[in-house]
Amino acid sequence: MPDEPQLVDPVDHPMRRLFAYMRPMRGRVLFSISSSAINKVLDLAPPVLVAWLTDVIVGTPPSWISFIGDKFAQIVFVAVLTVVIFGLESVFQWMYQYGFMTLAQNVQHKLRLDAYSRMQDREIQFFEEHRLGKTLAMLNDDVNQLERFLNSAMSEIVQLIVLILFSVVVLFSVSWPMAIVCLVPIPVIVWGSLKFSLAMEPRYKVVRAAVGDLASRLENNIAGITVIKSFTAEQYESSRVEEASAAYRAANHKAIRLSAVFVPIIRMAIALGFAGVIIMGGWLVMRGEVTAGNLVLFSMLIQRLLWPLTRLGTTFDDYQRAKVSATRVFSLLQTPSRIADPAQPKELVRARGDVAFENVTFAYRTGSAVINGLSFKVNAGEMVGIAGPTGAGKSTLIKLLLRLYDVNTGAVKLDGIDLRELRQFDVRRQIALVSQDVYLFHGTIFENIAYGSSFEVRDSRPGEESTKPESRASILEQRVIAAAKAAELHDFVQSLPKGYDSIVGERGIKLSGGQRQRLSIARALLKDAPILVLDEATSSVDTETEREIQQNLAKITQGRTALVIAHRLSTIRNAHRILVLKDGALAEEGTHDALVAQGGVYADLWAVQSGSMEQEVTVPR
Q: Which residue has the higher pLDDT, 592 or 68?
């Protein structure tokens, strides 16, 4: 199985898609861009003001200032104008920074929610093949990278464009020969920046991949810390983290080596342009073709123009980082799930509970067929046990019933309706699952048991029965306690100092395996779905608890269709029927007594578990 699925990237221009993503926010975008442009124009006023002041002092003031009066009055006027311009510059700086920062936060928020929503809609195969660290890197690091680009780099791009346009207009209006000389380095700088940008893009792809690998390694190790400690593998895992971190560092170093050489080269081009302005400007002033103020204007403005271009590489650097992140995020957003709802789904509010597999064949993407021509039917209200050796396809059968995967051939039907003709939501709300791999959320015991039903409480509409929050909460509390009692969990909860308000910890770490499984059973019972699926539901409980659950199994499954996958065959001994799978096909079917008497696969499994089969044990000497 590949480490990461190779998604088809439909994003030809990811940054264009990012800008299109901001269309609903175009008012704030225009506000931010215009404020940034005005701020940059005002920021470029000092060279012009100093040029006017120089000409006033040497006695050649601009014509529009000369009418003000004597030389000192003209100087005071330039000073007042300077204060006004700097004040306006500060106002517009606040406006564009507030605008871009708010825009970046809004886009980040919406993009993360959309990416998470799309990820939730993806088929289960995506999560089974996609390492968790890489998934989190898309939701966190990549989205944050786009937020940083909108927060700073986008404003820099706007101001750079304004800077070039403003400088070109002013310089050419004063002296086109000097303007040509001072602008000669710009094509070199822009060409070098573009080449730098193209060279950096593949390096940043490696960096993004490396940070995903590192995040996956850290996530795996933290989640598996108990195993690491029990096998005293701390040093080994530290070396593996060091290896992943070193790969990330090496990828960054490769990018840094190229990034660090850019600015020194650009500085030399700027120095040559500035030297050209000094030589030509001094010569033109000596000839009387330009004023001393114009030379000062050129000298200051060329610095204002060329020195910020040294940041062009950094801006392109941020752009490339954002482009790589946008490609990953929008690839996720634009890649449809392999499991899709039909265009015109059939309605199913609450199923009777009839389940049918009709000549079903299924294989995972990278393996041979797991289910081979499987056919059976479960009637509403029937309790059916499913048994078979490891690898027979028992758990896969449940994934097909939940439509986590689609069958290759044949059909899985619910109340006679092919699951592919129903919405996934409608299918899954009919089924309550108790998985052998119990997952509990960080929170209280009450919150975990009420996980599904608490949505109903929050979503109740005015006018419905018991609409008062306290009434709904009281009813939910009663249902939670009843479910806990049915799952043989209530007595344990009552023994805790905080009872149902006790925190279970991350993934239920504060509870034992049996306690987590009983809580999972209570959660499923509270869902009150017409179909109950127990997938090795007693695999982690002790013998006494298993016996208590077995005694309550008839009561638990009453009024429901129950599919009970069991490694411990005693759990399904009293089922109405038992289906025995082998190599993905139905090998045997019948009651417990009939299958034992038949002497087939089930009888062998029962003999092993009940201890009636004599086994020869060879003790090595």
A: 592
Q: What angle do CA 503, 506, 511 make, to 5 degrees?
A: 60
Residue-by-residue DSSP string for 375-428: EEEE-TT-EEEEE-STTSSHHHHHHHHTTSS--SEEEEEETTEEGGGB-HHHHH
In angstroms, the CA 123 to CA 365 distance is 13
Of the CATH numbers 3.40.50.300, 3.40.50.1820, 3.30.1360.70, 3.20.20.70, which one belongs to the domain with range 438-528? 3.40.50.300
Report the candidate in 102, 187, 182 with the shortest Cα–Cα distance to residue 150: 102
In the three-class reduction of DSSP (H, G, I as helix; E, B as strand; rest coil), residue 368 is classed as coil
Segment 66-81 shows an average pLDDT of 81
H-state helical runs in 307-376:
312-334
SS3 581: strand
- Same fold for the pair 14-334 and 342-430+531-551+559-611: no
Strand order in the sheet with 355-363: 369-378, 355-363, 409-414, 417-418
At 211, the amino acid letter reads: V
Q: Which two tokens stand for residue 569?
A: 């065959």
Asked whether the beta carbons of 523 and 448 are under 8 A apart, the reply is: yes
Q: What is the pTM of this model?
A: 0.63
Whose tokens are 């003031």? That residue is 61
Q: Taking the domains of the chain in order of start, what are their residue ranges?
A: 14-334, 342-430+531-551+559-611, 438-528
* Of 186, 394, 269, 75, the residue nearest 65 (C-alpha): 75
Backbone torsions φ then ψ of 508, nearest 5 degrees: 75, 30
* CATH code of domain 342-430+531-551+559-611: 3.40.50.300
pLDDT tens, position by position, 128-160: 666 666 666 677 778 877 888 888 778 888 888
Domain 14-334 listed as CATH 1.10.3720.10: no
**Dihedral class, residue 149 (left if φ above 0, else alpha if ψ from -120 to 50, else beta):** alpha
**CA-CA distance, 586 to 419, in Å (whole number)?**
21
